[in-house]
């Protein structure tokens, strides 16, 4: 059973990131946050749209970066939320800091597709289950 993140967890993660690394607090759109929460669970014609754990994590990344639900820190929050989601579901994510930052910038500037983001996440993951 997949264990998703709740709105409060995403908001708290963002708050803590801003507190620790700087930036401006604030939610630009609560509706966008709600969309981030529901997107990985999306069902189309009776089937899950995103079937793997990595596709679901990629949706968190793409939607937080693309939708900018926060005033600041969207890329940091996107990565943190995806890593939290993976860990909650028995997957450890590990990437070098510079590599991670470069990839997140690529997601933002090149508007990478879910499949590409998912593949990159999977290539940096280890199952703990």
Give keywords.
Four Helix Bundle (Hemerythrin (Met), subunit A); mainly alpha; 129 residues; 6 helices; globular; two-stranded antiparallel sheet
Structural overview:
The protein is mainly α and 129 residues long. The chain has one domain (7-127): Up-down Bundle (Four Helix Bundle (Hemerythrin (Met), subunit A)). It has helices at residues 7-21, 30-38, 53-67, 74-88, 97-110, 114-123; strands spanning 43-44, 47-48, 91-93, 125-127. The protein has a two-stranded antiparallel ribbon with strand order 1-2. A two-stranded antiparallel sheet has the order 3-4. A hairpin with a 2-residue loop joins strand 1 (43-44) and strand 2 (47-48). Helix 1 (7-21) crosses helix 4 and helix 2 runs antiparallel to helix 3 (53-67).
Short description, anyone?
This protein has helices at 7-21, 30-38, 53-67, 74-88, 97-110, 114-123; strands spanning 43-44, 47-48, 91-93, 125-127. The chain has 129 residues and is mainly α.
Write the layout of secondary structure elements.
Blueprint: H1 7-21, H2 30-38, E1 43-44, E2 47-48, H3 53-67, H4 74-88, E3 91-93, H5 97-110, H6 114-123, E4 125-127
Antiparallel strand pairs: 1-2, 3-4
């Amino acid at each position: 059973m997949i264990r998703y993140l709740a709105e409060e967890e995403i908001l708290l993660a963002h708050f803590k990131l801003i507190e620790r690394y700087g930036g401006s607090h604030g939610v630009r759109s609560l509706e966008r946050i709600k969309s981030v929460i529901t997107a990985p669970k999306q069902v189309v014609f009776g089937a899950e749209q995103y079937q793997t754990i990595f596709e679901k994590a990629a949706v968190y990344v793409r939607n937080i970066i693309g939708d900018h639900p926060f005033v600041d820190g969207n890329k940091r929050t996107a990565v943190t939320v995806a890593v939290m989601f993976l860990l909650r579901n028995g997957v450890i994510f590990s990437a070098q800091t510079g590599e991670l930052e470069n990839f997140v910038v690529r997601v933002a500037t090149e508007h990478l597709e879910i499949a590409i983001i998912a593949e990159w996440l999977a290539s940096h993951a280890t199952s703990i289950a």
